[in-house]
Amino acid sequence: MSTKAQTFLQRHFIDRKIGGLPLREAVSITPDLALDKVVQQLAFENVGCLTVVNAEGTLVGILSERDIVRRAYAQGRDLSEATASSAMSADPKTLPDYASLGRALYFMAVGQFRHIPIISRPPQRTLMLSVRDLVDLIYSKIAAPAISSKEDELVDPSALAEFFHDPISKLKPDPAISVAPATTVADGLAKMDAHHIGSLVVCDQPGKVIGIFTERDYVQRVAAKQLDPKSTTLDAVMTPQPKTVLEGSSIALAFSAFSEGKYRHLPIVNSNENLQGVLSVRSFVKALSKGIIDDLGKSPGKSEP
């Protein structure tokens, strides 16, 4: 990303406060709730994480879809016997609602968080900020005008052109890990754990994308429905015919797919529809956060008004 584009985006985020976003109130559970009930709650609320609150009302942890996959299933825990406290991320990072989006992005990038509990001012409530909220904000305020080229809506059109009109290769997409449709969920999750990734691209022949399987698919379509991962195949629970982007597409175009389709991963294909890689929201956050990390990283403990 050019210095000019970094400066514009950095200023745009540092100047905005978290409290200005229409955040959803966090859904809380108790530490002793069984994990099979946790996945039911995640699926029912259609959220990516829950806060864990003790009997005194104190936030003691956060439990995400990734925690269910990596700290419960991958470790062979019985979801009906293990509890939220055994898989949660304890003592999660929180931010006040008057903190800047820049600081939130800084912590998301450095800590590799996808969710941060936000403590609102009195009357105190716990809200949830997710990467999805940042994606929607960026798209509505920055990327969408860049796509439509409505120059009068842009604060700095030249800076945006340098970033959002660049090809997605500038975001350094991840190599794609593909599997066959008949792969079992158990084998798929093992591969995801081995490669430390959140999705698998399902191909019916070399390079031909027919689906994508994510941590959310496991939670909502397998664990919540009590299907057996060892006998259930990915073609039965994957997201079929996922949105793909052509290599060489602009960052703005890919970003519109992230926001409008509510995706976290996009398979990248060439002109022959052969799989080339995977673009994730994380790739965008890394690129966007670089200038902010350089600035806030000098004084991460600095208070904000």
Write a concise keyword list for the protein shown above.
alpha/beta; four-stranded mixed sheet; 305 residues
The share of residues in extended strands comes to: 15-25%
Q: How would you classify the helix and strand content by structural class?
A: alpha/beta
Distance between the termini: 29 Å
Following the backbone from N to C, one meets helices and strands in this order, namely HEEHEEHHEEHEEHHEHEEHHEEHEEH
Uncertain ranges: 150-158, 299-305
Strand order of the largest sheet: 1-8-7-6
Query: Helix count, per DSSP?
Result: 12
The dominant shape is flat
Q: pLDDT average, as an integer? A: 85
How many DSSP-defined strands?
A: 15
Cα radius of gyration in angstroms = 20 Å
The biggest beta sheet is recorded as: 4 strands, mixed
| Range of helix content | 40-55%
Task: Give the SSE map.
Elements: H1 3-14, E1 24-25, E2 28-29, H2 35-45, E3 49-53, E4 59-64, H3 65-73, H4 84-87, E5 89-90, E6 95-96, H5 101-111, E7 115-119, E8 126-130, H6 131-148, H7 157-163, E9 178-179, H8 185-195, E10 199-205, E11 208-214, H9 215-223, H10 234-237, E12 239-240, E13 245-246, H11 251-261, E14 265-269, E15 275-280, H12 281-296
Parallel strand pairs: 2-3, 6-7, 9-10, 13-14
Antiparallel strand pairs: 1-8, 3-4, 4-5, 7-8, 10-11, 11-12, 14-15
